[in-house]
Write a structure and sequence with these properties.
Layout lengths: L1 E10 L5 E10 L4 E5 L6 H9 L4 E10 L2 E2 L5 H7 L1 E4 L6 E5 H15 L7 H14 L4 H5 L1 E2 L5 H15 L3 E5 L7 H14 L5 E5 L3 H6 L4 E6 L2 E6 L2 H9 L2 H7 L1
Parallel strand pairs: 3-10, 3-11, 6-9, 9-10
Antiparallel strand pairs: 1-2, 1-4, 4-5, 7-8, 11-12
Helix pairs in contact: 2-3, 4-6, 6-7
Bound molecules: adenosine-5'-triphosphate.
Length: 251
Amino acid sequence: MLEIRNLHVKLEEEDKQILKGVDLSIKAGEVHAIMGPNGSGKSTLSYVLSGRDGYEVTEGSATLEGEELLEMEPEERAAAGLFLAFQYPVEIPGVGNMTFLRTALNAQRKLRGEDEISAGDFLKLVREKAKTLKIDAEMLKRPVNVGFSGGEKKRNEILQMAMLEPKMCVLDETDSGLDVDAMKLVAEGVNALRSEGRSFLVITHYQRLLDHIKPDVVHIMANGRIIKTGGPELALEVENNGYANLLAEEN
Ligand SMILES: Nc1ncnc2c1ncn2[C@@H]1O[C@H](COP(=O)(O)OP(=O)(O)OP(=O)(O)O)[C@@H](O)[C@H]1O
């Protein structure tokens, strides 16, 4: 599904190398988690995959089902099936949540040469998905994320993901700021989307999220590279011992 090879990324504005040779291979249907100390490059990886400005790829590649993502515009990456749930979801005053969801869905359909969804079908779909995430109708009418609590914003990200049905879902610290119940809701939302043809890359600092979204593979990122890959036990090791031992092994 997603193949990242020797990815090197620097900041466009200054001569600072952030990713220093990331290799990652995620097969269809797999859930991978990335953990790692603050500032190791986890969010940068998710931004570069989705095409955010400000970063320069100096070496390497990232393909989604064999197609080079790094040469596509952000909207083309989304239409190809990539989705990023932000660590800090943005507020969009003046744009209703429903309008945003429907416009995003139809824009992707258009790029894929598909017909627009009818107003009736959209309404049915959004109400059904919102209900499972306990997002009430009033929140759907408000401007995107404006005045939403931290947890509501994160649930709204998962609603976007559920509506767009991407193939490759990247979740950047979706658990931060969530209370225990909201975390379970988000995890249930993710688990409901798990399927043979859909993969997940879950960036998190906490093992507890991985109790709910069970990963197949766990990677540790440090200093711009993946320094260790293992199973779910690796997340437990980090929870118990921190990163010091892993970093020492690396040096
Ligand atoms: N636009 C930018 N301008 C300046 N520095 C940046 C920029 N983007 C990233 N960096 C730096 O790159 C490094 C990696 O940042 P990144 O946000 O990817 O780390 P992270 O692993 O996601 O951290 P955290 O766990 O704290 O969220 C940090 O040192 C950060 O300050």
